[in-house]
Write a structure and sequence with these properties.
The chain is mostly beta strands and 156 residues long. Helix content is 8%, strand content 42%. The protein has two helices and eight strands. It has a four-stranded antiparallel β-sheet with strand order 2-1-8-3. Strands 4-7-6-5 form a four-stranded antiparallel β-sheet, with no helix packed on it.
Amino acid sequence: MTASKGQVVSIRYTLRVDGELVDQGELDYLHGYRNIISGLEEALEGKSVGDRVVVSVPPDKGYGPYDPDGVQVVERSAFPPGSEVEEGAVFYAEDADGNPVPFTVLGVEGDSVTIDFNHVLAGETLEFDVTLTGVRPATQEELEHGHAHSPHGHTH
């Protein structure tokens, strides 16, 4: 069995940016449903259990280019009372459809807070080292939901 649409693929991975370890772990995902970044999903297509894939994913197939318009200055009063508004803190706003949109606080100056809606890895080339640890057919429920249900966590 290989990583293909409708299969739940289990991977063990490390992610580096400019040689620095950014993330590592294990993940089960439903292949072919854009549950992981496209550049990694494309690299894993057709691979089998035990295969190791080392791939460099450019921003356009990762978290997108860095958008300077994503950086904005808002009033501190826009934040919930008592919240820790400090550099590096992550908050969520809602888009027009009510979906959560994460943003990071870049800095605080008096009552002005500079925030960034770019993903923390936007504009970065992602260096993945991935080993496939499992491939299985998705259940009907997983196909209906469009994501894997796994012991490694339930992500949306």
